[in-house]
Amino acid sequence: xxxxxxxxxxxxxxxxxxxxxxxxxxxxxxxxxxxxxxxxxxxxxxxxxxxxxxxxxxxxxxxxxxxxxxxxxxxxxxxxxxxxxxxxxxxxxxxxxxxxxxxx
Amino acid sequence: xxxxxxxxxxxxxxxxxxxxxxxxxxxxxxxxxxxxxxxxxxxxxxxxxxxxxxxxxxxxxxxxxxxxxxxxxxxxxxxxxxxxxxxxxxxxxxxxxxxxxxxxxxxxxxxxxxxxxxxxxxxxxxxxxxxxxxxxxxxxxxxxxxxxxxxxxxxxxxxxxxxxxxxxxxxxxxxxxxxxxxxxxxxxxxxxxxxxxxxxxxxxxxxxxxxxxxxxxxxxxxxxxxxxxxxxxxxxxxxxxxxxxxxxxxxxxxxxxxxxxx
Lengths: 104, 262
Prior knowledge:
Order of helices and strands of chain A: HEEEHEE
Helix content of chain B: 25-40%
Structural class of chain A: alpha+beta
Strand order of the largest sheet of chain A: 3-2-1-5-4
Number of strands of chain A: 5
Largest sheet of chain B: 6 strands, parallel
Shape of chain B: elongated
CATH superfamily of the largest domain in chain B: NAD(P)-binding Rossmann-like Domain
Number of domains of chain B: 2
CATH topology of the largest domain in chain B: Rossmann fold
Helix content of chain A: 10-25%
Strand content of chain B: 15-25%
Oligomer: heterodimer
Number of helices of chain A: 2
Structural class of chain B: alpha/beta
Largest sheet of chain A: 5 strands, antiparallel
Number of domains of chain A: 1
Strand order of the largest sheet of chain B: 7-6-5-8-9-10
CATH class of the largest domain in chain B: Alpha Beta
Order of helices and strands of chain B: HEEHEEEHEEHEHEHHEH
């Protein structure tokens, strides 16, 4: 999340509500290490990344839902998903993300 | 007690102070946070006092190791249970990259080191060459003798840090290498042809450097990429630093014979 601090600070100063998504765990091969982060502002601006681009758009959808409902959550993406056609990582790994409103 | 706030985390990172942000990501108390900044009292607390105590202990260990990981506990902090998932995210200050010698290769090396996230210092005793105008991307440009700079900062260097000696001048590079060998710096490299490298090794031995110590010195500096330009050479040097740190076998110039420039 280190690379995002400057932009997050700016958004907060502008009074924008922000959802934060952080990679907390990976299984198998994953493009980004735990600590990689993405943030989505209430007006849909996106900074950072949590994968090689495979799951970013799905994370944005989840993040906007976190902002709408205020409900923090764990979300996992991977080839091992029950739905073989669901969004996943092409590298075959599984990535576990924690999403929360940046209200702390 | 202070809360574990974004502002406190931002301030610690800006001040290059090591910190760990602890977040309960699953189970009771999800979203609860602790922030541990080196030298400060921890901020925030977790719902259960026993869980809080165990997690603080593990946060201190993560801070010391600079490690980012998840751990799982019972609701009261028990080991080998799975009720609460906690994410420990370490914010280590950037590793240091010290370049001795304000030469043509230095500017390119500063640029590549910055891309890799290092805090970069250029040091040269010659005032005319060691200027911020020549190295605008360097975090610091210091006019001093290498051994004097290392007397000041040497004790803070560790396995993540790098020292590169590019002076091409035994008057500067022998004392710089001798001083760098007294530190715990993870990477130490020196530029020069094979002939320069041999002559320098003789001088270093004459200064009391042992053969065992000499094995720490990567000279001639860099991976054998066939690099010619300062930029390519900078990549060859940084690639060697990465390979050394990760313990990966990558062919270094030191392990081959023959001329460096083919």
